[in-house]
Specification:
The complex is a heterodimer of chains A (about 425) and B (about 450). Chain A is an alpha/beta fold. Helix content of chain A is about 35%, strand content about 15%. Chain B is built from 18 helices and twelve strands. Classes of the chains: A alpha/beta (about 425), B alpha/beta (about 450). Chains A and B meet through α2, α6, α7, α8 and β6 of A and α2, α6, α7, β6 and α9 of B.
Chain lengths: ~425, ~450
């Protein structure tokens, strides 16, 4: 099985994407598609985003670029030259999918838009993934991850209890997730078009909007407004809500936190299990008292249970210990970990999650995160580290398109590649 | 006229409940697949408890607003899968379907006698997507999640908040939404693979594990540079960098200032705008939009290094100006001048005030048999040849039982009636809804 091709083997994707779409290219490439990343001569600007290997800034040392560009080959091409356009046209004629994140109208201005390219390749799928889509009053607006998290509604839902951090602003969760949201939906749209093509034989054009993807990703916030007219308040480490709900984040002995659902679940069965969990550490307090098998008593003592017993229990143990002890007894609780703690997670090791990726030019290998899902019939894999600038120019332009090495030199001299 | 759909003639057996699984099949439905949602009122989680029932309606199995938005484009079959007869019905359904999708704990389907091997015996090229909390393999496969726990354990929660404060985390189940995305992505990928090779497979998705790759750059900073993210000034709130701490990228994008949320007029709970300048040029444009105040020409603000170092003062001064404008007006002025700014938008803002979402018809009203006419969220992409719009309101529980059992699976009407009498299609002791009485006539 491990030698079997990925589910997208045989597909050729041309990626013309910056921070907005590079993750989508990675999703396709790690599942077996042949993703050719087309960068402007000198390299794409995301190569300048840190952190960098050993903190030495260099377009070949951006860890962000490394991560988001695995399993791709890389060529350089200046689309604003006629030679560049001509070469791109030849690549597009044999491609299955083009993923692009240019400003709306840019490819059309070069006559490289879907309408132009489909003339020589009716099976072609073009996905434009842009901040706001190809139409509308905000079409030309500038954006960033933070801007999308604001307008998409993520910030209006995330932050702190008023009492915990008075006057706190709405908080945009980090990690570049606006781009992830856009890329997940773009991937879905591309796959839908590809499935359709297996039946119809025809390609199509996809206009995907990151703003809309973000606006769709706040769970029940829209439904709360549409059906009840409610605007939700932000609460520390837990769900937005129309009115205050009991806290779910407790400080553990090691200073980190545990996400523990207690409030809202306080019934006799839960309290019995809770008493047993805490009693196994000799910290059951009065919770084993039979009076707590009466719902009315439980409700009247909710604050005692949460603020005295549970809070004390968690504060006396390391977060990891609470997490595993609670889960083993059926509690849906978890330790609030820093990402690097995941390297020690035995479950992930059991699933073969961490991958060694070779950086031959450095003579080193590094550990990369692996797959969201295990495809049992067609494995996910990182086929190679992110491409160096123009690394596959010869492979693509000479071996595949038949250019001579002399022609390649000419193109390099005139900044076409 | 009905448009062509990408997943025409694809049938999905949907055992999923609560949020992540139903959010996955919602999109497969929008793309044209026939989604058959298998439900049982005694063990239902998703319709009840409901906190989104309109104030003027009784809370019951058919009046959750959030369920209605999460389950458009589906049909509902009420069926007791844990009865011998129910299992037989579901096997007949799987035999004429393409995809099976569920988000139970890791051993549930197998314990019902519907493990992958059995699914293959029924339908050799079935695409089976399991969406459990921790996956079907690995020592913690029996652990359970809901969004905030997956977010906590995977490191996502830690990336959100102000320095020296507890994590702010995500104010909703981001990983139920995103877990749903991955469920749909896995199903589509498995389907493409089946269509091109003739082979199905089991795709073992885990909500917790699928959160981890969303922390890629932070993880590489550790595995490559040995730099952890429990460090001074991290996470830096809405800033790209917290002043007074070492200058290190925060995994959101370039390290620049200004990069923050600012209060706007009239200072209400969601009256905030975010402003970001990626370059000196963009900063100079912002200075112009602010009316070229004298302070902005002070030397410490003319370079990115200076703005990062003097962020407290910079942000205070920008906020004095931003408080003079309402958030949409500020946005418009900035964007017209080429400055990155957008308003913090609540759900009400998105539905009522966002001109872009209105133009793109993000929220179109649909009639629901129990809830009436309400806006429903649309797809964030337009496919030129195969539209992905909402075409069916969320089903009432068991609404399509007769259609599926008789027309699709070929049972007789008498068999349907018998199934209602013996507890296969509805609990014998539970009152039936009027539409169920009607389907038994």
């Amino acid at each position: 099985m491990s030698d079997a091709p990925g589910p997208l083997a045989g597909l050729r994707i041309l990626e013309l994407a910056d921070e907005k779409g590079q993750f989508c290219g990675k999703l396709l490439g790690d599942l077996g598609a042949d993703v050719v990343k087309i960068e402007p001569p000198g390299g794409e600007r995301c190569r300048h985003v840190g952190p960098f290997l050993d903190d030495i800034p260099d377009p070949e040392r951006s860890l962000s670029f490394w991560y988001y560009n695995t399993s791709k080959r890389g060529v350089t091409l200046n689309l604003e030259t006629s030679d560049g356009r001509q070469l791109f046209g030849r690549l597009a004629a044999a491609a299955d999918v083009i993923l692009e994140t240019f400003h709306p109208g840019f490819l059309a201005s070069l006559r490289l838009d879907y309408e132009s390219l489909r003339e020589q390749n009716s099976r072609l799928i073009v996905c434009s993934l842009t901040p706001f889509g190809q139409t509308g009053p905000w079409r030309d607006y500038l954006s960033s991850d933070l801007l999308h998290m604001a307008a998409g509604g993520e910030m209006a839902s995330s932050g702190y209890d008023d009492a915990e951090v008075p006057d706190a602003p709405p908080i945009a969760p980090g990690g570049g997730n606006a781009w992830h949201m856009g890329c997940h939906f773009a991937y879905m749209a591309i796959m839908a078009a590809l499935v359709h093509r297996t039946v119809s034989g025809q390609g199509q054009y996809i206009d995907a909007s990151i703003h809309e993807a973000c606006a769709l990703t706040t769970e029940a916030a829209i439904a709360n407004y549409v059906y009840r007219g409610e605007v939700l308040r932000r609460q520390t480490g837990r769900h937005h809500a129309a009115g205050p709900t009991p806290r779910t984040q407790f400080r553990a002995k090691d200073g980190t936190y545990v996400c523990a659902l207690v409030g809202g679940r306080l019934n006799p069965k839960f309290v019995k299990d809770l008493a047993e969990l805490m009693d196994s550490y000799g910290m059951g307090g009065d919770l084993k008292d039979p009076k707590y098998q009466d719902q009315a008593v439980i409700t009247a003592n909710a604050s005692h249970i949460i603020e005295d017993l549970v809070a004390n229990f968690i504060s006396s143990l390391p977060a990891e210990e609470v997490y595993h002890a609670a889960q083993e007894r059926g509690f849906t609780w978890g330790a609030v970990r820093a990402p690097e703690a995941l390297l020690d997670d035995a479950h992930l090791h059991d699933r073969g999650f961490w991958k060694q990726v070779e950086h031959k030019e450095l003579g080193r290998s590094f550990v990369y995160p692996g797959e969201a899902a295990i495809y049992n019939g067609s494995p996910w894999r990182i086929s190679g580290r992110a491409p160096l600038i123009g690394e596959h120019n010869t492979e693509i332009f000479c071996d595949e398109l038949g250019l001579s090495s002399g022609e390649l030199s000419v193109l390099a001299e005139s900044r076409v590649i | 006229m009905p448009r062509l759909r990408a997943l025409e003639n694809i049938r999905v057996v949907d055992f999923s409940w609560v949020r992540a699984g139903p959010w996955a099949t919602r999109w497969l439905g929008a793309l044209g697949a026939e989604i058959i949602k298998i439900e049982w009122p005694e063990s239902e989680r998703g319709r009840l408890p409901s906190t989104t029932t309109p104030q003027n309606l009784e809370v019951n199995l058919n009046t959750s607003g959030n369920f209605a938005d999460t389950n458009v484009n589906k049909k509902s079959l009420s069926l007791n899968v844990r009865s011998a007869k129910g299992l037989e019905v579901v096997k007949r359904l799987i035999a004429v379907s393409d995809i099976v999708i569920e988000n139970f704990s890791s051993r549930v389907l197998r314990n019902w006698g519907l493990g992958y091997d059995e699914l293959c015996r029924i339908k050799p090229d079935i695409v089976y997507v399991s969406m459990s909390g921790y996956g079907h393999t690995g020592r913690n496969h029996h652990y359970t999640t809901f969004g905030p726990v997956a977010q906590a354990v995977s490191g996502l929660t830690h990336l959100s908040g102000l320095p020296d404060q507890p994590p702010a985390g995500w104010g909703w189940s981001y990983m139920d939404d995103t877990g749903g995305m991955y469920g749909a992505m896995c199903a589509l990928t498995g389907l493409y693979h089946r269509n091109t090779t003739g082979r199905g497979q089991h795709i073992d998705l885990s909500q917790m594990v699928s959160s981890v790759p969303l922390n890629g750059p932070a993880l590489l900073d550790f595995t490559v540079n040995r730099r952890g993210s429990r460090r001074a000034g991290f996470p830096p709130g809405n800033r790209a960098h917290w002043p007074g701490t070492p200058l290190v990228n925060n995994y959101r994008g370039p390290t620049v200032a200004p990069h923050n949320a600012y209060r706007t007029h009239p200072g209400g709970y969601n009256d905030w705008c975010v402003i970001v300048c990626h370059s000196d040029e963009e900063w100079r444009r912002l200075v112009q939009v602010m009316g070229a105040p004298a302070w902005a020409n002070l030397e410490q603000f003319t370079t990115v290094a200076g703005r990062l170092q003097h962020q407290e003062e910079l942000d205070e001064r920008i906020e004095v100006w931003s408080m003079t404008l309402e958030k949409y007006e500020l946005t418009e002025r900035c964007q017209e001048a080429g400055v990155r700014a957008l308003p913090v938008q609540s759900a009400e803002d998105r539905v009522e005030h966002d001109p872009q979402l209105r133009h793109r018809q993000m929220y179109l009203a649909m009639e629901h048999p129990a809830l009436g006419r309400h806006k429903v969220q649309n797809a964030p992409f337009r496919l030129s040849e195969t539209s992905a719009s909402n075409h069916l309101p969320a089903p009432l529980i068991g609404q399509h039982t007769r259609e599926i059992v008789e027309s699709l699976l070929g049972y007789s009407h008498d068999e349907l009636r018998a199934g209602f009498t013996d507890g296969t299609f509805w609990p014998t002791k539970r009152a039936r809804f009027a539409y169920q009485e009607e389907m038994l006539q």
